[in-house]
UniProtKB/TrEMBL annotation:
TM helices/strands, residue ranges: 36-58, 648-668
UniProt keyword Membrane, yes or no: yes
Source superkingdom: Bacteria
Record protein name field: VWA domain-containing protein
UniProt keyword list: Membrane, Transmembrane, Transmembrane helix
Highest classification ranks of the organism: Bacteria, Pseudomonadati, Bacteroidota, Flavobacteriia, Flavobacteriales
C-alpha cells in the first residue's frame, strides 16, 4: 500500500469522526447512549463511503522458483514393440522420470508420440505411424521462448512427416536414447513401389520397385509379382556388400476390368529375421475408357503445354492440341478447351451446336470478345483495348463440385483486356477477380449448366504461372493438377447433377487415414447444410456392420473410418431426410509400415544429437545421460517475482455493509423519535 493511500485513509478517519461527532454530539449537546451509538453508525458509514471512493490496493510480492523444463518424449508407435524394445523403453523412461536429482533440477514433462503428439505417462506402443518431425515441431510451439533439453526415446524410424533433423531447431539440445537391437541382420526389403492407380484395358502398365539389402556377403534373390495364384513376373536380382539397392521395372498386362490386387515379393534361400517387409500389395483399377480432350488454339502460348501436363497427370485423360481447322470429328472428343477463340473458331462453334460437347473457354489478350458474345450467352463482355492484371478471390460457398482453396489469393495475376463482364442466367463462380486491392465483383473462373450441357469460363491467360507457383509453394504440381482435373471431371460428365455426391478411394493402406466425403444438394442444386448423412460399413468376410454419422466441414460432409481391419468392405451412405442412397465398396490392404524395420536408425539419431550439440545414448547408458544433464550449467532454476495486487475490501460487500449501516441508523432514529 502506498504512502498516499495511507494518508488518504487517515484523512478519511478524521473526516468521518469529525462529521459524526458534529452531527450527533456537538450539535445536540447530548452524550446519551443512543446518540453515541448513532454517531458510531454514522462514523462507520462515512468512513466506508470514503474507503469505497479511495479503493485502496494491497500489493504483495512473492517469489517462486521456476525450474527448467525437461521434455521427455517417448516413441509410442508399434515399431517399438515389433523390435522387442517396449520393456527397455519403459525402463529408460522410468529411470529418468523417477530420478530424484533430475526432478529437483528440472520440471519433467512427459509426452508420447506416434502419428499424434500428446502429454502422457502411460504408453501402449500401438501407434500405426511414427512422426518424429511433428513431435519436434509441436514441442517448439509449447516452449517458444524457453531454453530446455529434450530426451527422445525412440528407434528413429519415421514413417510419415518431414525430415525430423530440422524439426527440433538448433537452440535446444536433443539427447536421443536409441532403443532396438543394433546388431545387423541379413534383410531383404521392398523399400518402395511406384505404380499408377489406373491402367487401361488391353494395355500394359509399369511397376517400379526399389529393393534394398542389408548384409555383408553376396546374395541372389528373386523378385516376383503375382495376382492370386498366377505368377505374372519373376526376375533374378543380385546384391553384394557394395551394391545394396536395386531398381526393378516390370510391365504387367491389364486384361481384367475393375480393381485388381497384386502382390510384389522378394525372397532368397537365406534366412531372415524379418520377412514382413519382403512383401507389398498394390492395387490398380483397370478401366476401358479414356477421356479425350481437345485443346483448340490458333496461337502458341505456354498455357497450352501447362494445361496438357496438368490434365494428363490423370492417366484417364488424353490431350490433343489442335488448330481450329484441324478437328475432323467432334465425336472423337469428350471435352473441348477453346483457348482465346476468334473468328477462326466459327465453324467449330457451329458444329458444336449439334454435337453439344462440353466446353472450357479461356480468354486473354488475343480473344475476339465481339465474336465470343455472338457464340454464347452465359457471359457478356464489354472489353477495351487496354490490358489489366486480375488477381483471384476464392469463393468458399461454391458448390457445383467439391474443391479446395489451393492458395489462389497468393497466385500471380492473370492478364485479360480491361472491361466489364456481365452474368446471364445461372452461373456458379468459383473465382472472382480483383485489380490490386479492389474487388471487381466480376467472375474469373465460372461454370454453367443448361439443359444437360456444361461450360466453364476462365477469363485470363498465363495460368502456366499458377502451376509453377503451386510447385514452388508445395514442392509438387499435385494441388494444381488436381484442381484442373476437377474442372475436367465436371465437364466430362454429361449426366445431370446428382443430389448425393460421394468421394472415396477404392483402396487404402492399413493404418493410413480412411476418409469418405459427401455433398448433398437440395432440389435447387444448392448445398444442403441441414442434411443428415449416415454410413453403414460392412466387412465382406465377417458381415459385421458399423454405423457412423458424417460431420459437416465447410461445404461438404465427411467421416473418418480409422480403426477398421484389413479386408474388403461394402458401404451404404444414406441421407435420412430424403432417403437418398449411395452404395459402393473399398479395400483396406494388409500393410503395416511400422513393421518394415529390423534395426533402429542409429546414424540419423546420432546426426540429430550432433546437430544440436548433444549426444546420443543407448539404454545401458542412462546414468551417463543423467550425469550430463545434472552437470550442465546451462539449465539453472530461475527465481521469479510475482506481484499480486488485491483490493483492501470487496466492493460489493462494502456496499452491502453501508446499506446495513444506513438502515440500522434509520431504524434507531425512528424508534427513538429522532426523525
Amino acid at each position: 500500500m502506498t504512502t498516499t493511500t495511507l494518508l488518504l485513509l487517515l484523512l478519511s478517519l478524521l473526516i468521518a469522526g469529525s462529521l459524526s461527532y458534529f452531527q450527533y454530539i456537538f450539535k445536540v449537546k447530548n452524550e446519551s447512549k443512543v446518540n453515541l451509538f448513532l454517531a458510531f453508525l454514522r462514523f462507520l458509514t462515512i468512513f466506508s463511503i470514503l474507503i469505497l471512493l479511495i479503493n485502496p490496493i494491497i500489493t504483495k510480492n512473492t517469489f517462486e522458483i521456476v525450474k527448467t523444463p525437461l521434455a521427455l518424449l517417448v516413441d509410442n508407435s508399434s515399431s517399438i514393440s515389433f523390435l522387442n524394445s517396449n520393456e527397455k523403453t519403459i525402463e529408460a523412461y522410468k529411470q529418468i522420470s523417477a530420478n530424484k536429482e533430475i526432478k529437483d533440477k528440472f520440471e519433467v514433462q512427459s509426452y508420447g508420440f506416434s502419428d499424434e503428439f500428446e502429454p502422457s505417462e502411460l504408453f501402449d506402443f500401438e501407434g500405426t505411424q511414427t512422426n518424429i518431425a511433428k513431435a519436434g515441431k509441436d514441442l517448439k510451439s509449447i516452449y517458444k521462448y524457453t531454453l530446455y533439453p529434450t530426451v527422445l526415446i525412440t528407434d528413429g524410424n519415421q514413417t510419415s512427416g518431414n525430415d525430423y533433423l530440422y524439426s527440433f531447431g538448433d537452440a535446444n539440445k536433443v539427447y536421443p536414447i536409441i532403443v532396438g537391437d543394433t546388431t545387423r541382420f541379413l534383410d531383404l526389403k521392398i523399400n518402395q513401389l511406384n505404380v499408377n492407380k489406373y491402367a487401361f484395358l488391353k494395355n500394359k502398365f509399369p511397376v517400379e520397385a526399389f529393393l534394398q539389402y542389408s548384409g555383408s556377403k553376396d546374395l541372389t534373390a528373386d523378385f516376383t509379382v503375382s495376382q492370386g495364384n498366377s505368377l505374372l513376373s519373376k526376375q533374378r536380382i543380385s546384391f553384394s556388400a557394395n551394391s545394396k539397392t536395386v531398381t526393378v521395372k516390370v510391365l504387367l498386362p491389364a486384361d481384367k476390368i475393375g480393381t485388381q490386387i497384386y502382390k510384389a515379393s522378394i525372397s532368397s534361400v537365406e534366412k531372415e529375421k524379418n520377412t514382413y517387409n519382403n512383401t507389398k500389395n498394390f492395387v490398380v483399377e483397370v478401366i476401358d475408357q479414356k477421356t479425350n480432350i481437345a485443346i483448340v488454339s490458333s496461337i502458341n502460348h505456354p498455357d497450352l503445354g501447362s494445361f496438357k501436363r496438368a490434365i494428363e497427370s490423370n492417366v484417364q485423360r488424353k490431350v490433343t492440341i489442335l488448330k481450329p481447322n484441324e478437328i475432323k470429328s467432334l465425336q472423337d472428343y469428350n471435352v473441348l478447351i477453346l483457348y482465346q477463340p476468334t473468328t477462326e473458331f466459327k465453324s467449330l462453334f457451329e458444329s458444336n451446336k449439334i454435337a453439344r460437347i462440353n466446353t472450357f473457354i479461356i480468354t486473354g489478350n488475343s480473344t475476339d470478345f465481339t465474336f465470343l458474345n455472338q457464340q454464347q450467352n452465359n457471359l457478356s463482355f464489354k472489353m477495351s483495348a487496354g490490358k489489366e492484371d486480375y488477381l483471384a478471390v476464392f469463393n468458399g460457398q461454391f458448390n457445383a463440385f467439391s474443391t479446395e482453396n489451393i492458395g489462389f489469393e497468393n497466385l500471380p495475376p492473370l492478364q485479360n483486356p480491361y472491361g466489364t463482364v456481365s452474368v446471364n442466367g445461372s452461373v456458379s463462380v468459383l473465382l472472382s477477380s480483383k485489380i490490386r486491392n479492389i474487388d471487381t465483383n466480376f467472375p474469373l473462373l465460372a461454370f454453367t449448366e443448361n439443359q444437360g450441357r456444361r461450360s466453364a469460363y476462365l477469363l485470363g491467360e498465363n495460368t502456366w504461372k499458377w502451376r509453377l507457383q503451386t510447385h514452388v509453394a508445395n514442392q509438387s504440381f499435385e494441388k494444381y493438377d488436381i484442381f484442373i482435373d476437377k474442372i475436367i471431371q465436371f465437364l466430362s460428365t454429361t449426366a445431370g447433377k446428382k443430389s448425393l455426391v460421394v468421394e472415396h478411394e477404392r483402396f487404402y493402406n492399413f493404418g493410413a487415414g480412411i476418409e469418405i466425403s459427401a455433398q448433398y444438394f437440395n432440389k435447387n442444386y444448392e448445398f444442403d447444410e441441414k442434411a443428415r448423412l449416415t454410413i453403414a460399413v460392412t466387412n465382406s468376410t465377417t458381415k459385421e456392420t458399423k454405423n457412423y454419422d458424417l460431420l459437416k466441414s465447410s461445404n461438404y460432409y465427411k467421416v473418418n473410418l480409422d480403426g477398421l481391419k484389413a479386408g474388403a468392405y461394402n458401404f451404404t451412405l444414406r441421407e435420412l431426410n430424403t432417403n437418398n442412397v449411395y452404395s459402393s465398396n473399398f479395400e483396406i490392404l494388409d500393410f503395416d509400415i511400422e513393421k518394415q524395420f529390423v534395426n533402429p536408425d542409429v546414424e540419423k539419431l546420432t546426426q540429430l544429437a550432433a546437430q544440436t550439440n548433444a549426444k546420443a545414448y543407448f539404454p545401458n547408458q542412462i546414468d551417463a545421460l543423467i550425469k550430463s544433464l545434472l552437470e550442465n550449467e546451462e539449465y539453472k532454476a530461475i527465481q521469479k517475482n510475482i506481484v499480486v495486487k488485491t483490493p483492501l475490501v470487496d466492493l460489493i460487500w462494502l456496499l452491502v455493509f453501508i446499506s446495513i449501516l444506513l438502515a440500522t441508523e434509520w431504524f434507531v432514529r425512528k424508534y427513538n423519535g429522532l426523525l
